Hints:
The protein is α+β, with helices and mostly antiparallel strands. It is built from 10 helices and 18 strands. The protein has a 7-stranded mixed β-sheet, with no helix packed on it.
Amino acid sequence: MFKKFLLYNLIIILFSQVANSNIDIKARTAILQDFLSGEILYEKDADISIYPASMTKIMTAIIAFDLIKSGDLDLTDKFIVSEKAWRLSTSGYSSMFIMVGDEVSVEELLKGIIIASGNDACIALAEGIAGTEDEFAILMTMKAKELGMNNTNFANSSGINDPDNYSTVRDILIMSNYLIKQHPDFYQWFSIKEFTWDRTGGDPITQGNRNPLLYKNIGADGIKTGYLAVEKYSLASSLERKGRRLIAVGSGFDTKNERSKESSKLLTYGLTNFDLVEIANSEKPIDKVEVWLGKESHLDVYVNQNIFKIIKKAQKRLLKVTINYRGPIEAPIKKDQTVGKLKIVYNEELIGEYDLLASKDIKKVNIFSRLIKSLNYLIWGDV
């Protein structure tokens, strides 16, 4: 017999409808994503080419974080500062203010990049890891392609103006997702509000984090600003509040103030207009199914991934989530055996289907017990 159970009715808006919102963001290009569901809540020309400016430094940090995670680099490793790196600290660029010949730890360089946005620190780290900045940029582009950033090329480690250093806000979003998912501990450095460098030949210098959203009471905890005269102002930003995380990327803001105001507006829009609904948790059973001729009469079932959906508060639709299986399911049953389907239906259209898996082994009962159960079924119509 085919079993179909309605788990719950929820209100949801689909991806295509969500992305087409009425909000207007004063940027040349922008995108907003709910982190857990992966759904895009807003986009504006998200695939046009941009100069990522200092948002490039997110990838510079990622290369180092990956090497630390694999054991090929240590935070205590020290690199010697070259003249090329030092010159960027004397050329009017944002700098950590390192000096030629300084031996600087990977941890200090990374914090100088993330918090102070030091272009000099980028080159010192790049040269220390890859020998030259050009070789390091190749590693950056390779990583970008690995992540699916198909409209991105990196020509340097800092994001200073170069026609061959380009990306899109969608690609910057992909990169930001990777950072937060794969390096959550290091991601916390992006929320640090100031960094002090005990520089050679001068007093220690303290610089504040350039991300303006860190100083607003909206729950922002990263990630990176950018500015180039040819691109104007840009910002990749993220916040977490009440278990929800949003990521926004915008570029082509006319002023610093507009960058701050519009990025905050975009993130707030995501918080106030949408709710996040958990449909399935891979660590918890989603329901029970009936078992035939088993040593247990019911079996917990689950899906092997977390499933989230976004509810749009202003434009609601009915979402039906059901479990479907032919049951009762005959024993023996093996753990992780597929026993049915979890289906998500929107407006009578199937929008998601996932395997229902057995949570444990269930053995078949002995011959005598099977006979009794079969007689009960014939007489009473029940197992």
